[in-house]
Amino acid sequence: MNILSIQSHVAFGHVGNTSAVFPMQRLGVEVWAIHTVQFSNHTGYGAWRGRVFDGPAIEDLVAGIAERGVLGTCDGVLSGYMGSADIGTAIVAAVASVRALNPKALYACDPVMGDVGRGIYVRPGIPEFLRAQAVPAADIVTPNQFELNRLSGLPTGTLAETKRAVASVQALGPRVVLVTSLATDDTPADAIDLMAGEGGAFWRLRTPRLHLDVNGAGDAIAALFLVHYARTGSAALALGMAGASVYGLLRRTLEAGSREILTVAAQDEFVAPSETFPVETV
Fold first, then answer.
1. Starting from the edge strand earliest in sequence, which strands make up the sheet with 2-10, in order?
2. pLDDT tens-digit readout, 70-100
């Protein structure tokens, strides 16, 4: 399997491509990584160095890959933090170029725009671009609860409301929606839910709530879900495998007291999660 991953990159730590590429490689996937930004570290530290690339830079790299005659062997495109709207335009164009050569290729869009408690943290125009262009082009979208609210314009306080919000996003274009962190009135205080929807069906995976504040887990689960969905064709199976792996990754990170997720040290969790959880139809 070949995946084109277009995301941010940091030299130190694990977010964006540095959180997504290695887990996919550990699963035996060949990853072609294109960076939308190159920073010294993630912005959660409050200070960083580096630069944001522009749309033409992304287009140039995709053109170079195409010139090698391999773009038609790309099985999927994964996108995350975009940095600017013109980068988003370049990503959507890259998806179109891949699909022109391989109509079966999947596009998984992690619609990074914000989070509960932090609000919107991307540049102006990105949320609008995601809803109007990137999400409709995607086969899979992986919002957190805050992003699901923004994309759907609907509340998600109950399980029924969340299902309606997921269906609303599916109506924009993607056939699969994975909600990467979900707390409704049905979620126990000591747990966190993940939900996947496809074809009118919904599945939930519930794991213990881990009290840690790290970046990059959403990037990892989007990558793992894409790979497992591409291999199995089942959102339910992909939810179970990706959710278990990321829970193991975060548990190991918490036990180590690390501010950065232990993408390398906990790599066995990607292949054989140390703990699994039931996937229930809801």
1. 50-52, 30-39, 2-10, 76-79, 106-109, 140-141, 176-182, 191-198, 201-208, 279-281
2. 999 999 999 998 878 899 999 999 999 999 9
Q: Could you tell me the CA-to-CA distances from 207 to 85, 96, 180 in Å, in that order?
A: 35, 37, 12
The answer to whether the CB of 145 falls within 8 A of the CB of 166 is: no
Beta-carbon count within 10 A of 13 CB = 22
Query: Average pLDDT, whole number, for the chain?
Result: 96
Distances (CA, A) of 26 to 104, 124, 252: 23, 35, 17
Question: pTM of the predicted model, to two decimals?
Answer: 0.96
Instruction: Find how far residue 133's CA is from the centre of its chain.
Output: 17
Planar angle of CA 259, 261, 266, nearest 5 degrees: 135
Find the DSSP H helices in 27-153.
Answer: 55-67, 85-101, 126-129, 135-137, 145-152
Q: What's the rounded Cα separation, in Å, for the pair 5 and 70? A: 15
- Residue linked to tokens 């999400």: 135
- Tokens of residue 282, six digits: 């809801």
In angstroms, rounded to a whole number, what is the distance separating the alpha carbons of residues 70 and 66?
6
DSSP 120: E
What length is written for the chain?
282
Tokens of 33: 């990584």
Supply angle C-alpha 46, 48, 49, rounded to 5: 160
